[in-house]
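Appendix B, record 7
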Amino acid sequence: MKQLLLIIAALTLTSQPVSAADEFQEKELTDSNYAKWRDHVLPRNWELSYRRIPWQTSFWDAVIEAQAKDKPILFWAMNGHPLANT
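Structure tokens (predicted):
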């Protein structure tokens, strides 16, 4: 058991953490790597799937629609600026 723990500890200590930028050879943005970086930072389709939901911006409109369709309402409220600039 001690040998297994020592092996795991040795592997953990010798492994290098991989960041998203490590997959790119050049860290600076240049004309030659612009497209690669652009594709890396643009959101994927699954990250934008919330846009397909027909959100209501008015609570009363949501109440009327929910009653007509006999569906629940997700009410999201928060206090402060959405970017924490309060």
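Remarks on this record: Residues 34-76 form one domain. The helical segments are 2-14, 34-41, 59-69.
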